[in-house]
Amino acid sequence: MTDDSAPVYTAADVGADSILLVDDTVILRDRLAMAMRQRGFLVQTAGSYDEAVEVFHHSPTDLAVLDLRMPGRSGLDLLRKLLQLSPNTRIIMLSGFGSIPASIDAVRAGAVNFLSKPADADDILAAITRGDDPTVPTGEVSFPAPSLARNEWEHIHRVLSDCGGNISEAARRLGIHRRSLQRKLRKRAPEDPASPEVIENDPTAQ
Asked: Strand locations in 31-179, DSSP E?
């Protein structure tokens, strides 16, 4: 959906006036900010954990959209911090790579929903309206068993996220050479035949 299309959802539809958008990719963040302003929101933006906390501390918002992977501390860390500051803020987590464990982590930590990139303004607002029925269940979860390659790929990216994107530290924790890790990070997510959806985006493209 392009920015000049008629919006499906507006601020009034989701019962909110303000929104915080946190993504280290400036072009994507600014485009989404423009779309949200067109839908009637007062928009705040940030590109990192520290910047987002400072902005939110001075001006808490009704909604927040957080990128899972950013330089420094992760979107999950930010999610927990924002909910400490404002428990009633409704938060959507975005990620450029698909991950069932990350989805579950985000919802269990308090996100109302989780979306894979790319997600436009109406995708995000639709996910917020589904907040009472999140696409990722919070209780006992039954998913088809992923392949060994998929498990390895997801584990590597979770460790890298925990290390704030530091490849050297992630390689140390994983017990592999830095160059070996770099080669693995250049690969796309392995296709899982049991999964109905295949993420098309390169997981390292941010």
From this structure: 42-46, 63-67, 90-95, 113-116
Q: Which tokens sit at 201?
A: 């985006």
Residue 81 corresponds to which tokens in the numbers above? 């911090």
Output the pLDDT for position 195.
38
CB atoms within 10 A of CB 196: 6
User: Which carries the bigger pLDDT value, residue 197 or residue 158?
Assistant: 158
What mean pLDDT do residues 18-40 have? 93
The tokens describing 119, both together, are 């997600």
Closest CA to 10 of 37, 45, 43: 37
Please state which CATH number belongs to domain 148-185.
Answer: 1.10.10
Q: Which residue has the higher pLDDT, 33 or 147?
A: 33
CATH class of 11-129: alpha beta
Residues of the chain with pLDDT > 90, as a percent, come to 35
- Read off the tokens for 54: 């400072």
Distance of alpha carbon 51 from its chain centroid, rounded? 17
